[in-house]
Amino acid sequence: MSLRGEREAVLTILTRIREEGTYSHIAVKEMLDQCEREGMDRRQRAFVKRLTEGIIERRIEIDNVIRTYTKKGARIRPVIRDILRMGIFQILYMDAVPDSAACNEAVKLTKLSGKKELSGFVNGVLRTVAREKDKGIFAAAAREDGASSDPAALSRKYSMPEWIIRLWNEQRSEQDTRALLEALLEVRPVSIRFDDRCSAADIEKILAVMQEKGVTATKGHYHALCYELTGTDSVATLPGYREGLWTVQDESSMLVAEAAGLQGGETVYDVCAAPGGKSMHCASKLLALAKRAEEGAAAVKAGTVHAFDLSKGKTAQIMKNVRRMHLPNVVVSQRDALLPVPAEAGAADVLLCDLPCSGLGVIGRKRDIKYHVSPAQLEELAKLQKDILRSAVGYLKEGGVLIYSTCTINRGENEEIAVFIEKELGFTADPLAPHLPAGIPGIDGHMLQLLPHIHGTDGFFLARFIKKTA
Given this model, what pLDDT does residue 1 score? Predict the structure, then answer.
């Protein structure tokens, strides 16, 4: 389908998410690729991305506005609701777009969608919202909600489901929850990790070319090979990506390979590996360690990473990334983490268990996660995590290292699972600090909960354990 403008591209994304259940980050990426193929410039693609992500991120707040300015109990057709959401977000949050343009373009889009008879309704709602904005009504309501400690008010302000706010209030302080909610609405840069085999000169050269292309790269908070990029909408076109000199990975996730404390030559098992970031990081570290040992005339094998995942699609994704990063020491296999392979008992020196979780720590990047997860799913996920761990720990040899991690902020999937590993699986908690970069706040012995408002990363949990010897 040929697109007739940025707003039609946004409506197409929203329709796909609604009708097909596609996750927003996938739908946005694929649409941006189409926009680029059809000749939309960088500014236009940035508009598509900003508007789509903003609508998804602010959906609870926007839908509350729609309820306020339409007849009580009115049934609004899904496509019209999406068009209203688009118009309201532009009016409230995109100062560069005149309110009149937001209204007029919404009317055009309504007609283009075959709903000409509803164009007056759309125009009336949006122009009322624009007038109310000019009166300062929305700003006043936001201040009032922001001053409240009521989860319902905070839900409206931060567009976060009430039950998640209540969960975090129970597990953290209300002040910490509010800071977390603020941070999750901030626009995050793209986090990349340079390969361990890159020289300082290689990195400097690539960063210089990025700068020439209008991309700003700043050092990460903790990891030496982490950089945060702003001013780009397509990482695949940047220098060094296709050559496999760097990959996209959040800085929090980079700490897993560091926590493993690799010395060289280890066999690493990653049982839920897709898309492969942690497996690739371990593999590149092992290759770099072997190269340094060879230069020092020491004989050290490169070590091997076995990356497993459940489906053909996921393993294909890992293999594609591994090939791009030129990592011959990664073995990718399709495997169910719940089903142990007795013949490989005790084969691993290091076991990575980054397990399926609620994803509450990556809401800032995958904005629709908060609408899909439920309280009941948290309990189901915790049970699944325990079941996978019971199966997977058999791969680890005595004295081997287990790194447990998730990309969520929930004690039931994090600290309580760490207790399970120690108490019920019989592992020994092992301090993280000796293995992680200096200066990371919040390390609690063998555990670390990273938080967006404190660490500037995704919300991420990791814990280190040693398998006891008999």
Answer: 52
Residue partners of 92: CB distance under 8 A and separation at least 6:
62, 65, 129, 133, 138
Residue whose entry in the numeric block shows the structure tokens 């236009």: 44
SS3 assignment for 29-76: HHHHHHHHHCCCCHHHHHHHHHHHHHHHHCHHHHHHHHHHCCCCCCCC
Residue 168 C-alpha from the chain's centroid: 19
Which residue from 7, 32, 148 is spatially nearest to 82, judged by alpha carbons?
7
CA–CA dist 88, 135 (Å, integer)? 15
Per-residue pLDDT reduced to its tens digit, 342-395: 999 999 999 999 999 999 999 988 889 999 999 999 999 999 999 999 999 999
Cis amide leading into 275 (omega within 30): yes
Q: What's the pLDDT band for 72 if we cut at 50, 70, 90?
A: low
Residue pair 289/264 in contact by the 8 Å Cβ criterion: yes
Coil, helix or strand for 387?
helix
Bridge partners (DSSP) listed for residue 218: 228
Q: Is the distance from CB of 127 to CB of 87 less than 8 angstroms?
A: no
d(CA 113, CA 26) in angstroms, rounded, equals 23
Structural element, H or E, at residue 261: none
Q: How many helices (H) and strands (E) does the chain have?
A: 19, 13
Segment holding 254, helix H or strand E: helix 251-259
Residue 92 tokens read as 């409230």
Given a contact cutoff of 8 angstroms between Cβ atoms, the answer to whether 408 and 168 are in contact is no
Q: Is 432 in contact with 448 (CB distance < 8 Å)?
A: yes
CA separation for the pair 304, 284 (Å, rounded)? 10
Q: CA nearest 50: which of 69, 67, 23, 31? A: 31
Residue 341, SS3 per DSSP: coil
CB contact at 8 A, 274 and 315: yes
The span from the CA of 285 to the CA of 205, in Å, is 21
Q: So what's the pLDDT on residue 319? A: 98
Q: Judge contact between 409 and 169, C-beta under 8 A.
A: no
Task: Name the DSSP letter for residue 138.
Answer: H
Q: Using CA atoms, how far apart are residues 285 and 195, in angstroms rounded to an integer?
A: 8
Phi-psi region of 231 (alpha: psi -120 to 50; beta: other; left: phi over 0): left
User: Residue 333: phi, psi to the nearest 5?
Assistant: -140, 150
Q: What does the chain come to in residues?
A: 470
Q: Which neighbouring-strand residues pair with 190?
A: 229
User: Which of 7-11, 235-239, 428-432 shows the lowest mean pLDDT across its residues?
Assistant: 235-239
Q: What single DSSP character describes residue 199?
A: -
User: Nearest Cα to 432, choosing from 423, 419, 442?
Assistant: 442
Output the six-digit token pair for 12. Answer: 């197409």
What tokens appear for 396 in the block?
Answer: 């680890």
Q: What share of the chain is helix, strand, coil (3-state, %, to 5)?
A: 55, 15, 35
